[in-house]
Amino acid sequence: MYDFALQRPQSLNEAIEALSAEGAEVLAGGQTLIPTLKNRLASPDVLVSIGGISELQGVSETDGTVSIKAGTTHGVVAATVESYPALASLAGNIGDPAVRNRGTIGGSLANNDPSACYPAAALASNASITTNKRTISASDFFMGLFETSLDEGELITQVDFPVPDAANYQKFDQPASRFALVGVFVAKYGNDVRVAVTGASEDGVFRWSEAESALASNFSSSAIDGLEVDSEGMIEDIHGSKSYRANLVKVMTKRAVAAC
Amino acid sequence: MSDKGIGASSKRREDVRFLSGNGKYTDDINVRGQKYVYFLRSDLAHGKINGIDTGEAASMPGVTGIFTGEDFAEVGGLPCGWQVTDRFGEAMKEPAHPVLAQGKVRHVGDPIAAVVADSLEQARDAAEAINVDMEELPAVIDMKSAVAGGTLVHDELETNLCYDWGFVEENKEAVDEAIKNAHHVTTLELVNNRLIPNAMEPRVAIGDYDASNDESTLYTTSQNPHVIRLLMGAFVLQIPEHKLRVVAPDVGGGFGSKIFHYAEEAFCTLAARKLRVPVKWTASRSEAFISDAHGRDHVTKIELALDGNGMFQAIRTDTYANMGAYLSTFSTSVPTWLHGTLMAGNYKTPLIYVNVKAVFTNTVPVDAYRGAGRPEATFQLERVIDKAARELGMDPIEIRRKNFIQKDEFPYATPVALEYDTGDYVATMDKLQEIADLDGFEARASESRKKGLLRGLGINCYIEACGIAPSNLVGMLGARAGLYESATVRVNATGSITVMTGCHSHGQGHETTFPQVIADMIGISEDQVHIQHGDTSNTPMGMGTYGSRSIAVGGAAMVRATEKIIAKAKKIAAHLMEASAEDIELKDGSFSVVGTDKSVGWGDVCLTAYVPHNYPLDQLEPGLEETAFYDPANFTFPAGAYACEVEVDPETGKVDICSFAATDDFGNVINPMVVDGQVHGGIAQGVGQALREHAVYNEDGQLVSGTYMDYSMPRADDLPSFVVDHSCQTPCTHNPLGVKGCGEAGAIGSPPAVVNAVLDALNKGGYNVSHIDMPLSPSRVWSAING
Question: What is the pTM of this model?
Answer without folding.
Answer: 0.97
